[in-house]
Amino acid sequence: MTRTLIHAVFATVALGCAAFVAYDWTRLQHAARVNQAIAAASVASGDPHRSAADDAPQILLARATALSKAGAYDAAARLYEGLIHEHPDDLGRTAMFDLGNMYLREGKGDGAGHGVKSLAMIGEAKARYRLLLRAAPDDWDARYNLERALWLAPETPTALEEPDVKEQHNVKVRDPESKDLP
């Protein structure tokens, strides 16, 4: 009886291990397919609406990043926004961070007559970083990039006149013979 019980326990453990191996094998195969698709994703062959329903979200994120680097900001923004709305988890936060970075890069772009668009893009970047920080307050990269965006386009009005130094240092001291002290 004990020998049969030991064999049954061993068989159950072996089947459990086989199930874990099968699960990990399918995940490994899926990751290999996703990595292959990401490597094949390029802007030249990548219409953002090509097979969006069949693509894995990681592939869409890679395609949006490739479009962003190639300068196709509108198509990249549509892909990023779709990922943000469909995946509020880590992938959506990554898409939001990348979208903020794209807006910040676009806002810092060089060129004459770029001022108004630049401020609008930096404002969009700040909005994305703030949304990301509401979802993940411990994201230090988003904090740094928000601070950088605020440095590029401050939100507080600067004083046009220098404050009077005498007014700043004019301190009034109470009379030592004050009657209201105990």
From TrEMBL:
Positions of region (Disordered): 156-182
UniProt superkingdom: Bacteria
SUPFAM superfamilies in alphabetical order: TPR-like (SSF48452)
InterPro entries (alphabetical): TPR-like_helical_dom_sf (IPR011990)
Residue stretches of biased makeup (Basic and acidic residues): 163-182
Name the UniProt record assigns to this protein: Tetratricopeptide repeat protein
Annotated source species: Paraburkholderia ginsengisoli
